[in-house]
Design brief:
The complex is a heterotrimer of chains A (777), B (157) and C (288). Chain A is α+β, with helices and mostly antiparallel strands. In chain A, the strands form eight sheets. Chain A has a seven-stranded mixed beta sheet with strand order 3-5-1-12-9-10-11. Chain C has 288 residues and is α+β, with helices and mostly antiparallel strands. Chain C has three domains: 49 residues; 115 residues, 2-Layer Sandwich (Uridine Diphospho-n-acetylenolpyruvylglucosamine Reductase, domain 3); 107 residues, Enolase-like, domain 1 (2-Layer Sandwich). The chains are: A alpha+beta (777), B alpha+beta (157), C alpha+beta (288). The interface between A and C is medium-sized, with 22 and 20 residues.
Chain lengths: 777, 157, 288
Amino acid sequence: MSEQVAFQHIEKKSLIGTRIKKPDAPAKAIGKTRYINDMVLPQMLYAKILHAGRPHAEIVSIDTSEAEKLAGVYAVITAKDVPDLKLGFVKDNAPLKGKVRCERDEVAAVAAESEAIAAAALKLIKVVYKDLPGVFSPEDGLKEGAPIIQERFPDNKSLRFEFKHGDLEQAEKDSDIILDDEFNVHYVTHCCMGTSCAIADFDHNGKLTIYSQTQYPYNYKMDLAPALGIDPGDIRVIQPPTGGSFGAKLDVYPFEPVAAILAQKTGRPVKILFDREEEFINSPTRQPAKMHVRTGCTKDGVLTFRSADVLMDNGAYTSWGPTVPVIMMRTVSGHYRVPVVDFKGQAVYTNNAYAGSFRGYGNVQMTYATAQHMDMLAEKLYDDYGLDPIAFRLKNAQESGEVTPQKSFLRECAFAECITTAADASDYVNKLKKYTAERATDDRYKRGIGLASSIHNAGGAKIHKSDGCGTMLKVDDYARVTVITGASEIGQGIDAVIAQIVSEELGVPVEHVTLVNNDSDLGPWDVGVHASRTTFIAGNGARRAAIKAKKQILAAAAKQANVTADELDLRGGYVVQDKDGAVVIKLDRMLRQMHFQPVPDVVMVSDYYEPNSEPEGKDHISDHSAAYSHAVHIAEVIVDTYTGEVKVEKVTMAQDVGRVINRMGLEAQMEGGLAFGLGFALSEEMLFEKGHLKNPSFRDYKVPTAPDMPELDIHFIESDCAEGPYGAKGIAELPTIVIAPAIANAVYNATGIRFFNPPMTPEKVAHAIWDKKRTAS
Amino acid sequence: MSVKTKLNFTLNSRPVNIEVPVDMTVLNLFRDFLDLKGTKYACGEGECGACTIEVDGKTINSCLMMAVDLQDRDVLTIEGLQKGNMLHPMQQAFVDHGAVQCGFCMPGMIIQANYLVKQNPSLTREEMKRGLEGNICRCTGYTKVLDAVAAVVGLKG
Amino acid sequence: MSDIKHYIAPTTLEQALETLALGRVTILSGGTDLTPQVSVGRRHFEDTLMNIRRIEGLSQISMQGDEIRIGGSATVSDIRYHDLIMKYAPLLCETASHFASEQIRNAASIGGNICNASPAGDMIIPLLVLGASVELASWTKGVVQTRRIPLDEFFTGPGKTLRNSNELLAAVIFKKPSADFVGFFRKSGPRPALEISTVSLGIGGEMKEGKFQHVRVAMGAVGPTPLRGRQTEAALEGQKLTRTIIDHAVLAAQQDASPIDDIRATKWYRNHLVAVFTEELLYNVCQN
């Protein structure tokens, strides 16, 4: 066999840009994959948490004696069992509470032989509460004499962020048009199909193994340890397959230390698994925000300034939610060329639910405002000064090499190409004019088209000291490759991308690459799967490691063949001549020869890739991502002006992806990301009444289903990012960010009504249309 | 404890004889007693389709069906679709078309898609959307799911 | 959750009714309402769980004389695809296709949907338009006794009906509609199905010589029970569907409806939809 191929020539074929199947898809498709939700450990107990179910109260007494007596109950814990254990962004949260500050507050927990027994035990716990007056809006939280939520913050003020650039007063004077509007972005939640779950298991040395859905296994240890009173080094994080994350698992939430504390107390593995109602009530949300946004522009269509004053409902505790201004201000200062910027963001404690991170992180909220303001300016400039709406956008779109006021360096910028590509593909301008003219007719169904865009970090975001990722790679005696990466897989497909990249570099089949990335005791550090960073950062890391391995192999082969290493290449499982692909030696044979010699030369390499970005910093002036990217969505809608139903018929998407790596995975991220934004725009909303969630079920919280999906026309713009792997940029959040304002702009085009308060539910749209007719007549 | 009853039914072409508490759902029986964890819990009220199985040729939400009602019935779960080590064409299509991301909803989605194509081998894309409206997926935006089903329809047509 | 002491899956109506007569029985049919209601604690199991899906003939759909009879345990899918229903009452098939999801349609029974007595129960609306009655069977004095109650008298409040605990909904029955019958159903929601109706509306009647006769109007989710729109019917009865008559009917429909605010919609929106749907369905009638 090897003799026959010895005369073969192997052509260089790149996998980059092709369609790679997800390696874990077959096991998932046949129902074989064991998700964390499916796991059962030997001797495992099941835990349930007693949630307060009231927004603000003192706990007068808790009597757990009856629960403790129930057969099958192993432990009952309350706040008195976990004094001084803290968690959260400003350590204002605790695994179990001595005072109730929101509906979800964890008051007690039970570990028992079965979920049913644990649930029965919860009913036997007698808690006497003394209800306190509550705060249910940030405005009320700021009022004189408002009830205090967190004793450490007597004015109820939580995090605050500011950024200023340029002379605002002068910019206002220079403006011919100034828009001034308040946008109010609502509560939504992730609705991961696999509900929240943790399994904790201590060994006899006091080391905790926690099976977790976390998106950041390494810093997770640092955050979890104080909530348990143990050393972070004594925590091992295992990430079994998880049923979605989307940002929901980027912090430690109380159920995780509760599982660990119960495991510590019982000496048994303890599993906590939420049911769907618990998931709705107790999961983080997207950060709601009231955004007072002002945008200025000259009559020539040049933006003069943008200011934003953002008020955020912090909820009762501080997770990632109220930190979203870090990204919001990048949108305010970087969504189009904005010379003068004034951003303020203030979070205020209330007795409502608290927010975590969520796909699009701050940018979903802010782009809903800025992209509508751009549309409003475009309309005014066209009506009053005859400026073409696309020309207006192109005039303000950044170009390669520009630097934003916050010092985001847009090295490779394809914003203009995104705009023209999407506008041309959808016949935007003609349709816009046609539908505007049709608005005055009596037709029940009105068509509309809307354009929106945004900018987002596409090369990580250096909000920690490091934004890096470690990779360890070995090539064994059979030319099978194992990659141990810090990067987490949550369904997004880094498994396919890394296998593809390693295969590209080492010339082995994709199926010969095994990825190990679910155990913090094995993997090197990574900051976590978030910020559209994993393909960029972990992809770079995997590529660099593979190149090191390749160099080592080629050096050995070159020595043997008596040529220089750069005359050789790895293709199709062989070492070949680079110029004509002539086979030199089979790769596995080469590897065995390297291995089994007096001074063994074994291929085991490592890499730690740190992007060339700068830490965010207190003043928010830094090139905090290694790349930035733009996307444009053009939504076409039909509005039933009687019922208010908005049907999104088609969306044209153009996004600067740097370069396509796995085309199939990339499309999948576009489609899935868009679906998230669609739900946010039209139907999803958590309805709170005095801190109480009124719709904790899929029956009343409406996520998009198959019939809701529009036709998609996706255009990838390849700007070739110098720092990205093969030129790629991070991509996963922009699809969620841009669609909602595109729909809002389209609904405006159809109806002449602006919706500053999503979601655009049928009732809201119908009422606005009815109201407009009433006032007109 | 509720009373138990004996139950005989066919599960993925094999007979099952088991005693179950009469207040147990099919989903709990499969997941907790028969170790068939491919069928997923995600809402428990028939809104999401993650627990979809086929009973006597029709798909139902196993979270809503009482196990006692399985008596004498013929059940197909995700574990019963493949032949030996060969994926069922619907499973293969989902893999090939990138319809699987986190994959949690996919067993239910695949069972439902397979049922739809069996009911109507020349299913249109609109009919697929309607037929899958009871299955929630949070990762894919459904597009690749529809592509996969369309590919299977194409194979048959 | 209470403990179940007995489980029975009778194969004959007599067996089922004898069991019911003993009392403390939970009836299991499709389970689509029962199971979630039990799991959230809104309902508790009685001592006996009785599965009625194995009763011979109880899911049959048939024509008896000039009546169409749908057995109580027929599923929504059974109805949706049944030749008889497609031929004589396509309105029911149309409604069935907008009922929940395919998986739920395959399990949910018509008897369950009616007896659950949700103000938003989708299948009830077209049955009201068809003038249906329910047949309740019981075991009295050693024999099967039945009584019929017109569906529009059956509901007494949310989740409440005239069915006694010893009675089983054996069938829902309606007179075969005449050849002149036209009927339409509309429910709200941007989705075709899988949506609890914010408002649902059905209108049907016979169109003879341009006049709309024997008109029945039914509304869901605009009162404590699904209801007949009596004032709307009066406004339409025997009339030609002119612009003026339709306007009158729309006003009357808003009189008939008495919706409330809840998390799914405000009173305003429900009233608004009643008006929109009434007009829309009457246009459909005109165009038919």
